[in-house]
């Protein structure tokens, strides 16, 4: 009799997190046909088209369970999406517990793997007597910070941003307080308190699965492994990169216009500019970026959204505004043939896989970063929010596969700086060295997920352990 090992995956309604954990689930069932995954999805509102496309791309071997949408009508109309997500998570917890209990009663459930934003689920595994893991869709460096955050909180009394010396976390490149994630920028804020509480719960995990590969963060991962051998932190498994391979686009003919445009460009000649699923710039910054692109004289493909439309659920609304209205007068005309502005959203993996792309100006969201790496595209790091500044430090100071933009004192990246850095990457000597280093990193990323690669071996060891547990359950 074939025994199916059952794993429950618990997601959060944040587009980039969802995309990452679904890719992980796909890889798991692809490598191990006798593992069955049920993905439990807390929701609020109805999913936007971009999110729907993610679910549509799943194989039939992954069951999807959508929890009833949480009612957020009592929240003020202008509640920040990040708070809406937090409230959705906390209001969904009883439903998640019930769903897990039902799965446990009816199948050989051996493990629950929950997104790193929903650490409240970690104790449920213990209650149901199954293993409980956290899926961390970011760097081992951020994970180290999370695991050491209580220690830092005790050791440092001022605001981190006021520290003169950079913070040293074992195995990590020193990092300035101003580059730490948003919740750490105000220690008296509610977000900081939540950050510490969430991090404490990581210690309840039977293991933490990181969406990165050993070769990209070897020093940090080794330092974490030394700690885990001492039994002071949970086991950390580097199992990535999980990057969407198949394009996932909405499919109107207008959307492919940019691919046709790329077909006409020379190899490695175009800079791709995008700030992820949620990032937008101020109107002033959009204009400055436009001038910088124009001044650089380099070809570009820019995914542009109207200013200050933040949306971590990739729901960019009704699309009733024409973002090009926010560009400097005459910009589109002057750059015709030289650059292309794509409104709102584009199929990023498809673009990065096109041979015409020679550079990626990115906000350093972790999915975008890994997508750049697996396609071997050198980066310009322009971090905006969340942990993106930390990612930029890793990419520019440690791995040296990115050039980081300098923000001037007025908080704007100015046109001369933009033009300088684009030229440096696309046609400068330093750009050539970055390309070489990125090639090495790309090869390592590709190798990590080959049959004998570091990430595949690690994931397979876990999977074999889960399978042996389900066999034990049936005897
Ligand atoms: N993305 C895309 N088209 C866009 C913008 C973003 O396909 O126009 C995808 C991108 O490929 C990545 C994800 O959305 O997989 C963004 O995730 P990331 O972690 O980079 O950043 P976040 O959205 O969390 O800021």
TrEMBL record:
Its EC number is 2.4.1.-. GO terms for molecular function: UDP-glycosyltransferase activity. SUPFAM superfamilies: UDP-Glycosyltransferase/glycogen phosphorylase. Gene3D superfamilies: Glycogen Phosphorylase B (3.40.50.2000). The keyword Transferase applies. InterPro entries: UDP_glucos_trans, UDP_glycos_trans_CS. Pfam families: UDPGT. CDD domains: GT1_Gtf-like. The keyword Nucleus does not apply. Keywords: Glycosyltransferase, Transferase. PROSITE patterns: UDPGT. It comes from the Eukaryota. Belongs to the UDP-glycosyltransferase family. This is Glycosyltransferase. It comes from Vigna mungo (Black gram). The lineage of its organism: Eukaryota, Viridiplantae, Streptophyta, Embryophyta, Tracheophyta.
């Amino acid at each position: 009799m074939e025994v199916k090992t059952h794993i429950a995956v618990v997601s959060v309604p944040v587009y980039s997190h969802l995309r990452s954990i679904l890719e992980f689930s796909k890889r798991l069932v692809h490598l191990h046909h006798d593992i069955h995954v049920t993905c439990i999805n807390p929701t609020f509102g109805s999913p936007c088209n971009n999110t729907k496309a993610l679910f549509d791309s799943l194989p039939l071997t992954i069951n999807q369970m959508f929890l009833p949408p949480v009612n957020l009508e009592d929240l003020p109309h202008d509640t920040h999406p990040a708070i809406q997500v937090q409230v959705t998570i906390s209001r969904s917890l009883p439903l998640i517990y019930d769903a897990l209990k039902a799965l446990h009663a009816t199948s050989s459930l051996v493990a629950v793997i929950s997104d790193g934003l929903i650490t409240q689920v970690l104790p449920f595994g213990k209650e149901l007597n199954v293993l409980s893991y956290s899926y961390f869709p970011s760097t081992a460096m951020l994970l180290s910070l999370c695991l050491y955050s209580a220690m830092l909180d005790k050791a440092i009394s001022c605001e981190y941003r006021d520290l003169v010396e950079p913070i040293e976390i074992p195995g990590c490149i020193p990092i300035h307080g101003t580059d730490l994630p948003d919740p750490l920028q105000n220690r008296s804020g509610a977000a900081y308190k939540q950050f510490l509480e969430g991090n404490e719960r990581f210690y309840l995990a039977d293991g933490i699965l990181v969406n990165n590969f050993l070769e990209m963060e070897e020093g940090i991962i080794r330092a974490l492994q030394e700690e885990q051998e001492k039994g002071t932190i949970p086991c950390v498994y580097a199992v990535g990169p999980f990057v969407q391979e198949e394009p996932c686009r909405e499919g109107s003919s207008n959307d492919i216009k940019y691919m046709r445009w790329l077909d006409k460009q020379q190899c490695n000649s175009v800079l791709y500019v995008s700030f992820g699923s949620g990032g937008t710039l101020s109107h002033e910054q959009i204009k400055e970026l436009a001038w910088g692109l124009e001044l650089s004289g380099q070809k570009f493909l820019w995914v542009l959204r109207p200013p200050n439309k933040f949306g971590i659920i990739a729901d960019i609304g009704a699309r009733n505004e024409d973002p090009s209205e926010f560009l400097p007068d005459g910009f589109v005309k002057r750059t015709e043939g030289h650059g292309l502005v794509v409104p709102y959203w584009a199929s990023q993996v498809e673009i990065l896989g096109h041979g015409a792309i020679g550079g990626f100006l990115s906000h350093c969201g972790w999915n975008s970063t890994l997508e750049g790496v697996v396609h071997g595209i050198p980066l310009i790091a322009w971090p905006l929010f969340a942990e993106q500044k930390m990612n930029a430090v890793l990419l520019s100071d440690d791995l040296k596969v990115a050039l980081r933009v300098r923000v001037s004192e007025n908080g704007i990246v100015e046109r001369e700086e933009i033009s300088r850095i684009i030229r440096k990457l696309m046609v400068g000597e330093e750009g050539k060295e970055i390309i070489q280093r990125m090639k090495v990193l790309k090869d390592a990323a590709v190798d990590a997920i080959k049959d004998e690669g570091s990430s595949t071996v690690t994931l397979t060891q876990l999977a074999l352990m889960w399978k042996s547990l389900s066999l034990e359950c049936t005897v």
